[in-house]
Amino acid sequence: MLSQKEIEFLHSPNNFDPEYRKALRHRIRSKVDSLKEEILLLQRAGYKVTENCNLVTEFSNPQTSSNQASFAKTKWTGGDLNPRPLECKSSVHTS
What we know:
Layout: H1 4-11, H2 18-44, E1 47-49, E2 56-59, H3 62-73
Antiparallel strand pairs: 1-2
């Protein structure tokens, strides 16, 4: 999520020019704000997020997770999603 320069800045901010420090702080703050919004979205979707927001720990909606498990066991038995006419009925003939 953070660029290499942003990570370097977090380790030693005094090594950067004051104007560049300001820009890096702004970029990091914007990314943190985006991350907070995404965490709220995850929580609304039923994910449990740890208190310090470091890790999504588990899916908390048992109905959805059981649907996912049953979907994973389902095998595709349907036909082609894009059925094409047989070669003799199509307007394009191969030699």
